[in-house]
Specification:
Blueprint (H helix, E strand, L loop, with lengths): L1 H5 L5 H10 L3 H10 L3 H12 L2 H11 L2 H14 L4 H16 L1
Length: about 100
């Protein structure tokens, strides 16, 4: 994947879309990261790669409210979350979006 890091002057979103169509998810993820398309990267991690733990690590690293929001919705939709956990998740999202 070193070739993606060396490439410049290309339409990242278009190339990432083609990579996804051919199942090249890791390559698409790297392209999204390189072009600072963090919400697209998070959607790829959650919907195509399906790794919620890796998505959580990504959210911690990026630390953007929209990325955290996608992760929170994934937890709610895919896991049993009790009301205390739900309150904690959304309270932290609100605090992050204020910073």
């Amino acid at each position: 994947m070193d070739y993606i890091k060396r490439l410049d002057n290309y339409d990242g979103p278009a190339i990432a879309t083609i990579a996804i169509e051919y199942g090249l998810y890791e390559e698409a993820l790297e392209i999204y990261r390189k072009h600072n398309l963090f919400t697209e990267a998070m959607n790829l991690l959650l919907n195509n790669i399906g790794d919620i733990n890796r998505a959580a690590e990504f959210a911690e690293k990026i630390n953007k409210a929209d990325v955290w929001s996608l992760l929170g919705h994934a937890f709610i939709n895919n896991y049993q979350v009790n009301m205390v956990d739900l309150h904690f998740i959304f309270n932290n999202l609100r605090l992050l979006s204020a910073t």
